[in-house]
Each structure stands twice: as C-alpha cells, then as structure tokens.
Amino acid sequence: MEVLIVIGILAGAVIGGLVSFFLLKGKKPETEVKVVEKVVEKGPPTEEVEAIKKKAREEAEKILEQAYKEADNVREKARQEYETRYEKELERLRREFEDRKRELEEKRKELKDIENTLHQRERQLDRKWEVFERREEEIYKREKEVRELEKQVERREIELLEKEKALRAKEEEIEKLKEQEMLELQRIASLTVEEARNEILKKVEEEARLEAIRIMKSVEEETLKKADREAKRIILTSVQRLSPQIAINYTTTTVELPSNEFKGRIIGREGRNIRTFELLTGVDLIIDDTPDVVTLSSFDPMRREIAKEALERLIQDGRIHPARIEEIVDEVKRDIDDKIRKMGEETAFELGLHDIDPRLYYYIGKLYFRTSYSQNVLLHSKEVAYISGLMAEELGLDAKLAKRAGLLHDIGKAISHELGGSHTDIGVELCRRYGEPEAVINAIKAHHEEEPVKYPEVALVCAADALSAARPGARRETLEAYLKRLEKIEQIVKSFEGVSNAYAVQAGREVRIIVNPEQISDEDAYLLSKEVAKKIEEEMEYPGQIKVVVIRELRSVEYAK
Questions:
Q1: Residue 379 CB neighbours (<10 A)
Q2: Do residues 14 and 128 share a domain?
Q3: pLDDT tens for residues 329-367?
C-alpha cells in the first residue's frame, strides 16, 4: 500500500515536472490521465489502485492548474519585462531623434543666418552699384553740359562775328545814307522855294496821316471798349430776361395713327386714296415700316399744315375715300384762314400790342408758315420784338414802339412769294395801308440797310434782328449755298492788294486775312480790315455778322547746320 502511494506521488511529481517543462518550452503537455495510466498500467487493477489513480488524477489536475498559473505569471512577467525594455528603447530612440532634430534646426538656423547675411551683402552691393551708376550718370550729364556750354560758346562766337559783320554792313549803309542825304541836300538846295515847300508839306502830310491813323485807332478802340461794355450789359440783360421758344421747321411732319391697319385704308384700293390726297394737298405722303406713324413731306409749311389737319380729321372720321378726302381738304382750307388770323391776334395780344389794325392779324399769323434759312419767321419776329422791347426799357426808350417795329419788320414775307418783289417793299406797303407809324416803316427798310436809321428804337430792332439771326441753331442753309458763301468771302478778300492769303473759318462767321508785311504796315492793316468789312457788307447777303481779322507778322528763319 505504501508502495502504491509512493508510486502515485512519484507519478504526480513526474507529471507536474513534465507539464512545467512543456509549458516553459511552449509545447502542449499530455494529459495527466494518460501519464498515470502509463505509470499504473504495470500494477494490478484493483479498487485501491483506482482510488489512487483518481487521487493522483486530482493531484495532477491541481499541479497542472498550478503549473498553468505559474506559466501565466512567467509569461506576464516576461511580457512586462519585454514591454519595459521596448518602451525604454523607444524612449531612447525618441530622445535621439529629438536630439538629431534639434541639431538639424540649429544647423538650419545657421544656414538661414548665413543666407540672410549673403542677402544683406548682396543688397549692399546693389546699393553701391546704384551709387556708382548715379555717379556715372552725373558725370555723363556734366560732360553733356560741358559740351553744351562749348557749343553755346561757339555759337556766341559765331553770333559775335555775325554782329560784327552786321555792324560793318550798318556802317556801310550809314555811309551810303549820308551820301544820299548829301545828294538830297544838294538837290534841295537846287530847288526853288515853292518846290521846297511842297516837298516839306508832302512829308508833313504823310507823317500827319500816320499820326491821325494812330490817334483814330486809339480813340476808336477806347470808344469801342466803352460801347462794347455797355452794349454787352444791355444785350445780356435783355437776353437773360427773354426765354425764347427755339423751333426749327423741317420739311417733314409726322402724324400718329390709332393702329397700323389705317395705313392700308389711307393707301386705298390700287392706291386711289393716297394719290387723291397727294394731288389735293400738294404734299408727299410717306408710308413706311414705322409702326402707327405716317410722314408728310413738303417744303411749304402751309401745305404740310393743311395736309396734317385733313389727315387727322379723316382718321377721326374713319371714312377714307376720294370723295370724302376732297370734302375734308376743302373744309380744312377754309378753316385754316381763321386759324391763321387767330394766331396773329394771339401774338399781338401776347406782346401787348392791342392797337394794331385787326386786318394785319392775318399777315402776322401767316408768318408762322414762312421760314428764312429754316428759321420760323413768326417766332423770329416775336424774338426780335421781345429783345428790342427789353433793350428799349434798359435805355429808357419807347418799349412798346420797339416791340411793334420788331414784330412787323418782316411782315412782307407773309405774301412776298405770292406777289413777288422785295419783302421790304411789300411790308412797307402793307404797314402804310393799315396806318402803322413811321418808325415801323423805317425799321422795315433799315434792317436791310435800304435807308438810314431814323429812330433809336429802330436801331434796337436792327440789333435784335442780328442777335436773333446769329443765335446758334437759329438758321441753316444748304451745303451748296454755304460753300458758295465761303468762296465769295475769300474772293472778296483776295481782291485787295497786299493780301497773301485768306481763310473763311467758324462756318463763315470769321475771315482771317494774312498780309505781306513788306507791303502792308500796321496802320494799313487797320484800314484794310475796315475796307474788307465794308466791301463784304456791300456785295454779300448773310445771316448774323462776319468778323474780319487781319494778321501781319514778320518771320525770320535760319537753319543751324
């Protein structure tokens, strides 16, 4: 029995040792049952043996469990030691890395400092180079100045030589003049008393003429300055107080349609309506792609007005056929006279001229359908009346008379195309027939310089007429007439002796005359401007005024080689 116990203990010890060995070696041990069985197989199979085997098995399991625990502890201890060694090694490597990194940063800083130092030296070198370049430029400029001074010195020397030559030439000329003077004195000495007197008078007359021109020019300039200032003040005051209605009559009038379908009705079948309308009114009816609009074209404003009124009535009536067109056009022609008379009456009352003969109202209103250089004559007459009336008030004259003369100064244009002849003669006849005062008659004649101004109010009318006509945009003329007027101005100017060239500028409002300074003196240039202005006034008709400018200059040209 004891032998069996000893054998069981030895078997458990052997099994525990083997398990520990295999666990330490990482191998899986055999089960304790197999080991016990191998050991006990040699003994007899009895119950005691079974109990011993069972007990041994339990002991072996305990030993095995203990061995497992010890193996886990050994493994955990080994793992902890390994992790400790790994962390220490990792920390050591990290410290080495940080040390290397600090070294690299220090080296980078050193390199950057070296680089900055190189940049600074490079900038210093650039600044020094710029200083050298500036000094080089200054040296070059000084050399250039020195060369210029040398050239100036050379030119001065040449000028001195030329002046010396000129002085010699002057001395020679003076000697010649002395000789001529001696010859002249000898000639005078041989003259009679009468001849000597005539010679002296001739020289005195020439000197007096030149002196008179200078005095006249000086007095005229002073007078013109004063008159110009006063005239400008009066004109500016008058024009500022006037707000004229600026209107330019063209050759077309547009009529708006209620809708585009009216164009077909106006044309009519096979164009009968439009042909009848154009035949009765004497205008061209233009129908194009412009929506809801037709155009009436004619050079006669009266015809355009009749056509416009007739077309508007036809559109309003809606019945558009040849018979109705003829009826409406006749009706409009009868009504237009009343409209003209009413327009003239309103114009007279607007100006405060209540005592004008009512029979003149028709002619005044008819001026609305007349143009001069594309300027509406009625609006022009009203403008002249307003301006002359305002200027008369400024000067303390009869403002009402000035307005009356201004309104009626072009009254003849109302029927000049019907009767023929000058509109001034027709206007004089009309005004005398209807009892207008003599100042009005004088204004009609004087504003075209057909007779001298007899009344101060008439002078204002002439000035207002020129102002209204010269206002920018007031009058227009055809290109052909414009070119002919410019050519005529230049021809007149070039006909004078001593004129080398002439240019009409400012759309014919100014002519610039270039004269030969050897033939025309300053005094002669002054007289030439007056003569040219007078000849232009006599030979030409033009709106506004033309400024005459005489240019006299002496040029000396030399070339430096």
A1: 21
A2: yes
A3: 888 888 888 888 888 888 888 888 888 888 888 888 888
Closest listed residue to residue 302, CA positions, set 248, 249, 354: 249
Sign of the Cα pseudo-torsion (209, 212, 213, 214, in order) = positive
CATH number of the structural domain spanning residue 530 = 3.30.300.30
366 within a domain of the structure (yes/no): yes
Specify whether 20 is located in the same domain as 136. Answer: yes
Number of structural domains (the chain) is 3
Q: Which domain holds residue 114?
A: 2-140
My answer on whether 462 and 495 are in the same domain is no
The CATH number of whichever domain residue 397 belongs to comes to 1.10.3210.10
Q: Do 511 and 548 form a contact (C-beta atoms < 8 A)?
A: yes
User: Which residues on adjacent β-strands are paired with residue 64?
Assistant: none
Query: What secondary structure letter does DSSP report for 359?
Result: G
- 431 and 397 within one domain: yes
Give per-residue pLDDT as tens, 138-195: 888 888 888 888 888 888 888 888 888 888 888 888 888 778 777 776 666 665 667 6
- CB-based contacts of 474, cutoff 8 Å, min separation 6: 246, 248, 373, 375, 380, 468, 543
Cα–Cα distance, 22 to 16 (Å, whole number): 10
Domain end, chosen from 94, 122, 140, is at 140
Indicate if the alpha-carbon torsion angle 12, 15, 18, 19 is positive or negative.
negative
Higher pLDDT, 284 or 238: 284
The 3-state DSSP composition of the chain as helix, strand, coil percent (nearest 5) reads 75, 5, 20
